[in-house]
Amino acid sequence: MELSAKINKIIKFSNVDGPGNRMAIFFQGCNFNCEYCHNPETINECKNCYQCVEVCPTSALYIDESSVKWKENLCCECDKCIKICKFDASPKIKEYTINELIKEVTKVKPFIKGVTVSGGESTLQYRFITEFFKEIKRKWSNLTCFVDTNGGLNLKDEMYKEFVDITDFFMLDVKAWDEQEHIDLTAEKVENVIENLQFLKSIEKLFEVRTVVVNQKLNNRLTIKKVSEIISKTDIRYKIIRYRHFGVREKLQKNLFSPSDIELKELEDLAQSLEVKNTLII
After folding, report:
1. Of 71, 241, 244, 271, which one has the greatest count of Cβ atoms within 10 A?
2. What is the pTM of this model?
């Protein structure tokens, strides 16, 4: 049976998903449920409740054999379907085979440095991505393959070896260091994230670590300190990101606050004092 994967969207040209101009592919489905998630429509699969069909102003959504279908050519990108969804899903999902996705890469190949898979959580579909990356490398030796991950799967496990081997670099989110904070924020434990941080650094496949700074909720200083101690004196970039409310579910925004410029600079100074060579405030 041919492998296929559910894709939320493809950004043909991105300069924020790894080095250089890259194609960014966002897979549907996530094993975390982050309170500050900026793309909650990528978490679950459509439950076919049909509410989105009723609010679609251009009839781009319709019901076929009890499932919601999407006509992309009619879509006006108003996102009413996403806003009304109670299940953190989207009806605007496409299923791609590896060959179909390779065709999308081929269209922009002369203009990109590589491909980055993201999500949702892309590693949940690691078997598909492994074969996809193999095909990229078979066809184009100059394109790099990056994975953007929340670190929820333990990539040291033998079952992921081929996936890790074929991937050039990983970009890892470390959302909170404290176990209870991480559970409160994501509904999952932090153990695998920390193990992946250490493991990917040890095999020199960690390109970037990212921490979203939320004021009055997380011990941001602890997280920055612990991450910095591990990536100290390396070329691994540490991206320190200001929490912003855009895209966050309205019912969850009331307990989330952005840090000040001064607080962000203090955290960057902390990382640099621990000899993190490459820091970036976003």
Report:
1. 271
2. 0.95
Q: Which of 237, 239, 281 is nearest to 262 (CA)?
A: 281
Name, in order, each residue with C-beta under 8 angstroms of 150's C-beta and a sequence gap of 6 or more: 30, 31, 32, 121, 172, 173, 175, 186, 193
- Report the candidate in 9, 136, 23 with the shortest Cα–Cα distance to residue 82: 9
pLDDT at residue 7, rounded to an integer: 97
The per-residue pLDDT for 55 is 96
Task: Give CA–CA dist 76/66, Å, rounded.
Answer: 24
**Hey, what amino acid is at 165?**
D
Q: How far apart are CA 103 and CA 114, in angstroms?
A: 14
Please provide the distance, in angstroms rounded to a whole number, between the alpha carbons at the two ends of the chain: 43
Name the strand (E) or helix (H) holding 229.
helix 220-231
pLDDT at 241: 98
Mean pLDDT by 10 residues, the chain (282 residues): 93 96 98 96 95 95 93 94 94 96 98 97 98 98 97 98 98 98 97 98 98 96 98 98 94 94 98 98 96
What are the structure tokens assigned to 207, written together? 């390109």
Tokens at 123, concatenated: 């590693």
Whether residue 21 contacts residue 55, with contact meaning beta carbons closer than 8 Å, is answered with: no
